[in-house]
Write a structure and sequence with these properties.
The complex is a heterodimer.
Chain A (H helix, E strand, L loop, with lengths): L5 H8 L5 H13 L1 H22 L7 H4 L7 H32 L7 H8 L12 H23 L9 H14 L7 E11 L4 E2 L2 E11 L2 E2 L3 E10 L2 E2 L3 E10 L2 E2 L3 E10 L2 E2 L3 E10 L4 E2 L3 E15 L3 E14 L3 E5 L3 E2 L4 E2 L3 E5 L4 E2 L4 E2 L3 E5 L9 H24 L1 H12 L1 H24 L3 H32 L5 H19 L5 H26 L11
Chain B lengths: L16 H8 L3 H22 L3 H18 L9 H20 L3 H10 L7 H10 L2 H9 L3 H11 L5 H8 L6 H17 L5 H4 L5
The chains are: A alpha/beta, B mainly alpha.
């Protein structure tokens, strides 16, 4: 036998040589002093290494030895309580009123998603009354639902893809969103689409086009994705429009729900008009038999008429037409022209005194509430709401920490990768809505896209909490005890609140924190998803 | 022989089967006791595997959070300490890999260098001259994989299979990695004779 090499000796010492080779080695070592020395030296080295590594020369940091509060029962009590509140809130504040309202306007309750998305806008005071605790409770309900779903899937390995939960969620939304009628829809994709006069579409019509003209008749609903669209014909069902400039001069048998830049209505709508727009004009021939709700920067009722209520969240509305129901306006200013005729009550809340023409005919006096012009820092209400927001965020953070401590830590760890988090976060904040909207363009994806947008809103809200948790930890130092984690979170959120309300740079702080936390969330999710199917060990990146 | 040897590595005591069972059933107090019992060993493991004290502290906390989440997956028929170290090793290796993407390249370069076979007497002299403190300092300057391999083998007393699994290398290659790590360690102990490119991998 030749002299032994170092590797063989090492393998022998580590017990990695087979019995045969070991025996041969031992036999050789007996006769060869050189190899015997090598073996001894390596063993000596092993001893030195083992000693150096295991010697407890340094005390274990005290904070690691701090006793752990590990009871989780109250965590579940808190989250279940919140969840119950969430379900109750969802039911009493959202679902029930919507259902009633929708039934009143003859909207069948068969399409739940439509109810969720569009019905929500009818809940009066949606914008200002959205108390964060309720919002939070709703989120917790959803989160708990997902968590339980995830656990349920985990116990059924045959059902688990990595995205099992997501797929299930997608399916849920899809099922909710598919009204029976979707089965009978005509879909057209073209640069220019024209439904000529006299042509009749007996089903729903879905159009993706640069510019679209509807001169004929659509007997079902019309769903429009276009840059320009003009409707001079007749749509017997609803119009759902994502259009830059939409002109409606014809007749609409159902509702108009539109997300547009400019909406020009100069025709008849048999039910309601709901719109998110830059500018809305209702011209002389405009007639809405139901109610109008608009979120816009300009709203002009120029001689048209609305049979029922008008609710406006508009910068500067100008009303010069007939309104059969009640008028509710939240705006900066309001002007009511000489041809205006209001048959119901009229409420205005805004910064400036409204300008009401003396010729205008109002059935009841306009109730006016002028918002205080005090800088918001001097209003006690401001501090109250800041405190509520702080508490709400702290509560959500606490629930997150208690339910998913490991994930919470993952989030903090990924937050520490500042560049990656902020970069990914900004990208995600920008790209997610775009992708979601693009997904909406495929009809099947509509529900999925809208669902994504909902989750996106929640994640963007959670962003600042994640960031604050990291910030607090950064300031107070790492400490695993639950109380310490909570005080870290509380401090982080407090500083965030202050930063977000700074004049001039507050928006930047808000954006940065949202992006940062959102990015950490995406990174953490990505790592989770990627790691899950693999064995405990992961191979080095190729 | 040594393979069968003491998997002690700073952890004394019998397998706390009852505590584990209680903790698995959701008993927070039992988990607290497990933590108290094993946190020091895991911390020292991290301290050896990761560059700084702060990293080790953070990692220890994170590892225990992971352990707690995964506790339900622990198979009581396997040694608990081995399982702890496996989770800890995966975590630390993840941390290191995430920080140094270039590491793989560097180790590949190092792998390509031929091993010099020193005379046993030279090694002996080297070992005699150095204290365990100096060995620790030298360890800190090793490339991540070399150091990790040594820590896994001689602190956590992992088998070659476990090391291969953790580092994502072939099992046959584990011996080579360990031997090369020893060579790099000797070079560090000798001081300035280290080739620069090898030292570049050290965690600063």
């Amino acid at each position: 036998m030749n002299h032994l090499d170092e590797l063989t000796c090492l393998l022998y010492l580590d017990g990695q040589l087979g019995a045969e080779r070991s025996a041969a080695l031992v036999a050789h070592v007996r006769t060869c002093p050189d190899c015997s020395t090598l073996l001894q030296v390596l063993e000596q080295e092993t001893t030195l290494l083992r000693g150096a590594l295991t010697e407890p020369e340094e005390a274990v940091p005290a904070r690691l030895l701090a006793p752990h509060d590990t009871r989780t029962a109250w965590a579940w009590a808190v989250s279940l309580g919140l969840a119950a509140l969430g379900v109750f809130t969802l039911w009493t504040e959202f679902i029930e009123p919507w259902q009633q309202q929708l039934e009143q306007v003859g909207f069948g309750g068969n399409n739940l998603l439509t109810m969720f998305l569009f019905g929500g806008l009818f809940w009066e005071g949606w914008l200002e009354m959205l108390t964060l605790i309720q919002f939070l409770a709703a989120i917790t309900t959803g989160g708990l639902g997902l968590f339980l779903l995830h656990r349920w899937l985990r116990r059924r390995p045959h059902l688990v893809g990595t995205g099992g939960a997501l797929v299930a969620l997608g399916l849920l939304f899809t099922v909710l969103a598919l009204p029976p009628a979707v089965a009978a829809a005509e879909v057209h994709k073209a640069d220019t689409f024209r439904l000529a006069k006299g042509d009749v579409v007996p089903n729903d019509l879905v159009v993706y086009a640069g510019s679209a003209r509807i001169e004929g008749t659509v007997e079902g609903d019309l769903i429009l994705f276009a840059s320009q669209a003009t409707i001079t014909g007749k749509v017997q069902g609803d119009i759902l429009a994502f259009v830059q400039t939409l002109r409606v001069e014809g007749e609409v048998g159902g509702n108009i729900r539109s997300f547009v830049n400019t909406l020009l209505l100069d025709g008849a709508v048999e039910r309601n008009l709901t719109t998110f727009a830059e500018s809305v004009t209702m011209d002389r021939n405009a007639r809405v038999a139901g109610s109008v709700m608009a979120f816009a920067s300009n709203f002009m009722l120029d001689g048209g008429q609305v049979a029922r209520d008008v609710t406006l969240f508009v910068d500067r509305p100008s009303l010069n037409g007939r309104i059969g129901g009640n008028l509710t306006v939240r705006a900066r200013s309001l002007s009511i022209g000489p041809e205006a005729e209001l048959l119901g009550t009229a409420k205005y809340r805004g910064r400036q005194q409204p300008n009401v023409s003396p010729q205008a005919r109002l059935a009841s006096p306009l109730s006016i509430e002028i918002e205080s012009r005090l800088p918001r820092f001097l209003q006690p209400k401001f501090y109250f709401w800041q405190a509520v927001r702080w508490a709400a965020a702290l509560l959500l953070g606490t629930v997150l920490l208690l339910l998913l401590p490991g994930f919470y830590h993952d989030l903090q760890r990924h937050s520490a990768q500042i560049g990656a988090s902020v970069g990914v976060g900004l990208l995600g904040l920008l790209a997610t809505p775009i992708v979601a909207v693009l997904v909406c363009f495929t009809v099947v994806g509509l529900a999925l896209g809208l669902g994504t947008l909902l989750l996106y809103a929640v994640a963007a809200y959670a962003g600042h909490i994640i960031f604050s948790a990291w910030l607090g930890r950064r300031l107070l130092g790492p400490n695993p005890a639950r109380g310490a984690l909570l005080s870290q979170l509380a401090l982080g959120l407090l500083l965030y609140r202050i930063a977000a309300n700074l004049p001039y740079v507050g928006w930047l702080a808000t954006l940065l924190a949202a992006a940062w936390g959102f990015g950490a969330l995406l990174l953490a999710l990505y790592h989770r998803v990627r790691r899950e199917p693999a064995a405990p060990a992961t191979a080095p990146a190729a | 022989m040594i393979e069968q040897g003491e998997r002690k590595a700073g952890m004394a005591g019998a397998e706390p089967g009852e505590l584990i069972a209680r903790a698995q059933a959701g008993d927070g107090e039992a988990w607290g006791q497990l933590y108290q019992q094993y946190a020091p060993a895991i911390y020292r493991f991290c301290r050896r595997a990761l560059p700084t004290r702060e990293d080790a502290e953070d990692a220890t906390m994170e590892i225990f959070l992971k352990l707690r989440e995964k506790l339900s997956q622990y198979d009581p028929s396997r040694p608990f300490r081995a399982w702890l170290y496996k989770v800890a090793a995966n975590h630390c290796w993840d941390v290191l890999r995430r920080r140094r993407v270039r590491q793989d390249l560097e180790t590949e370069e190092a792998d390509a260098l031929p091993l010099v076979h020193p005379a046993p007497s030279q090694i002996e002299q080297l070992l005699d001259r150095h204290t365990s403190l100096e060995v620790r300092r030298a360890l800190e300057r090793l490339p991540a994989r070399a150091r990790m391999a040594l820590v896994l083998r001689y602190y956590a007393e992992m088998s070659y299979d476990e090391i291969a699994d953790t580092l994502g290398i072939r099992r046959n290659f584990v011996g080579v990695v360990l031997l090369r790590a020893r060579h790099q360690l000797r070079e560090q102990l000798e001081g300035s004779r280290t080739p620069r490119e090898l030292r570049a991998g050290g965690m600063a």
